[in-house]
User: What shape does this take?
Amino acid sequence: MSTSLIDADSVLAIDIGSITTRVALFDVVDGRYRFLASGNAPTTINAPFNDISEGLRSALDKLQTVTGRGLIGPDERLIIPSAPDGTGVDLVAATISAGEPLKVIVMGLLEDVSVESARNLAGTTYTRVVDTFSLTDRRKTEERLDTILRLRPDLILVAGGTDGGASQSVLKQLEATGLAAYLMPESQRPDILFMGNQDLRDEVKATFEKLAPIHLAGNVRPSLEHEQLEAAQSQLARITRQVRSRQIPGVKELDVWAGGGLLPTQAGFGRIVRFLSKVYGATKGVLGIDVGASATGIAAAFEGELSSRVFPNLGLGAPAREFLETGPIDAITRWLHVDVHPDDVRQYLHNKSLYPASIPVSPEDLAIEQALARQSMRIALQKTMSSFPEKTLRYGAEVTPWFEPILAMGSVMTGAPNLAQAAMMLLDGLQPTGVTTLVLDKNHIAPALGAIAAVNPLLVVQVLESNTFLTLGTVISPVGDARPGTPILRIRLAYEGGGETTVDIKQGSLEVLQLPLGKAAQLHLQPLHRTDVGMGGPGRGGKLRIVGGMLGIIVDGRGRPLQLPSDPARRQEMLNKWRWMLSC
Amino acid sequence: MLASVVHILPLTKIRRERVLPVPGKVQVRRGQKVSANDVVAEAKVHPEHLLLNIARGLGLSEDEADKYLQCKAGMQVAQGDVLAGPIGFTKRVVRTPKNGRVIVAGGGQVLLEMDTPPLEVKAGMPGIVSSLIEERGAVIEAVGALIQGVWGNGAIDFGLMNNQLQSPDDEITPDHLDVSQRGSIILGGYCGNGEVLKAAAGLPLRGLILSSMDAALLPLTGRMRLPVMVIDGFGRRSLNSAAYQLLTTNDRREVALNAQRWDPERGNRPEIVIPLPVTVEPDLPPDTDTYSTGQQVRVVSAPYAGILGKIVSVLPGMTTLPSGVNAPAAEIQLENGEKAALPLANLEILE
Assistant: This one.
């Protein structure tokens, strides 16, 4: 008889997305935590409900139906803790990405020092920086005052001054903020997060505590060379929770259910990515990508050090039209394997913004959405790479560092007609290098697991071990500068059940090697022409044990960065060939 | 599944909250009859301020300068009024350069709020003020035809509607506009030519109702002062048959065109109200519903965008669409005779 080392706590995970509200139930089965079931319903943040509770209730109803377990009591409240009759749950973990991004004004001294750090902090969650005040800003105090009154930010991030450094110039920056807070109706005053010169904490607190909600955090730029976001990041998550609770009916109650631990979805996602990087403990990083309706989020962790960014302009729902501001339309249309006129793509993006929940019915519309997903991943990764630690291992500055694994979520991938299409989006969008594993979070539970990690890390470990995430397959992407058609990699695959296969991979090719789901094999890699597979340098190979995923082993020899033919017809032909190779 | 609802109704009661984004002054009273352009409430949303350094102006320390202040918080001042001084042999003073109100006076400084035009919230449709919302605005009620759209440029007006459509898929061109239409609201079709918008502003028209528009014209439309409303979406789309029928049969009637932006959070959509006299007041239309057999729906995205249909049945479970995506769907009998399984997320119930 097995003895459980864990308390039999059932856990309800809730994620309020901008389009969909998802709930998932975890409980102990045979002495180990398991993901049991999930339910979802449209989010009801907008009119006529204007309250997330309605959608949450519908999602819980579905979960009750699926599991046969009562979760809502006769008093219409969640049963918590669980009752002896098996109804209810013991613990709730909740995350939220729904709601307009917080409007943020960033304040600092030097553009490329404190202002940049404050901007980096803002980028870690669902915010839009609507203005920036710095020493180089020539606006007078009254102009800054009018700007704050006009923009009505939810939050002002104040950085500047190294510890023991500049003080008067920081206080001068705050003048307009003080006046604005004084002039605004109390209910509309922005929260202020001071994270500059720590010598000024008391003075700033005394000045603002009667004017506006003031929060203090450690200096995000304690020295000119060093950025330190972690302390401010947890404060920012707390402020976001408070602002959301004020702005969105139902959030306050949800936070109470979660024991005051409601997290922004990206914060939960970041936590699980960091957790995985600690679990894997390898020299490679762990990459997480969430292509959502309201934003694209990216989290990369290297030996526990997290780089996390949210891009509210790269959401596939309401923000879809904003893709047009990120670059030329060709950046999107280059990924289309079917004929769609660029003008039609423009109109599609605007219509998608009007109806963010609409679903692509035709293959052409699906191709546009998947092209957007690729482009959102490209932009998000490129903009985040600069924040990766210097020690990050990679082939070159222009290519994606070595990661293992890559965890992906977002309806565009989990709802794709087949898993190969999800894999193809990841290969094109992230362009992984070396040997990695593509993992798909089909049930969108990663953020909730991140939220649970703080209160029940054992659950997270056991749920991860239970194959809740779907392994798409192992990806091998050699990097080098060989000419197309040149052999770049010799692969010998020795199956643990017996038998082996040897193949030579040529530059420019995309191939799939069969390895049935769950079957193990020894993978021997021998790079040719000094290509690099992340095993110690160009030309260096090695062996490793791999287990088959849903799609086997994908060998992506198309080169990094991936160069698409400039001729549209030739490009489409290539894209279709690659799709065929992967059975998309 | 909760459904999204759009109103295209020949006769209904309409109730709209018209409120300021910040506290301000309500300009109407309960029971008052208002027209679309009447101001319901106003507030200073974007005030301009001026911070005057009195101490420097008088050549004194901050504490010393405060002794010579001749104004205090809340005081209205006119251009040239003395704020502080006189001092010294030359009787030095600090005057206000503009009309405004003193917000703060002290610490060697005076903060003035300049007189700027207030933000006005208009009634948006002719009707009766049914209730007031303290410091924010009012609730307006009206009876008439209601046609909601998907995009508006934020402007509001009221005028005689002039139909330029021969069929729902017509395109409006500059030739459709001439001086005889000055001051009217034009019902056009698809607009793909910026010259139409320039001509509309030049006449000027009082408004432009479009079935659809090239999204490339958005920047131009956004700058226009006359209201422009799009009913069915971006790209070339025919006017949906319900709106076509309703609008063309009300040609030469006065209509209120409230081309407000679609705000899903507040439930505000751009809309046309055609006031109609009634003896028995109709009910308010429902704002929520669930999908069920027999409902009339509008398809919101390709390949049947803008086409109306009836739900034959809500399909159980998930349905595989031509794109390969699985989604909850309904079988729709479309008005063009076709039958299609379409995702519920792409349907709006016509109420």
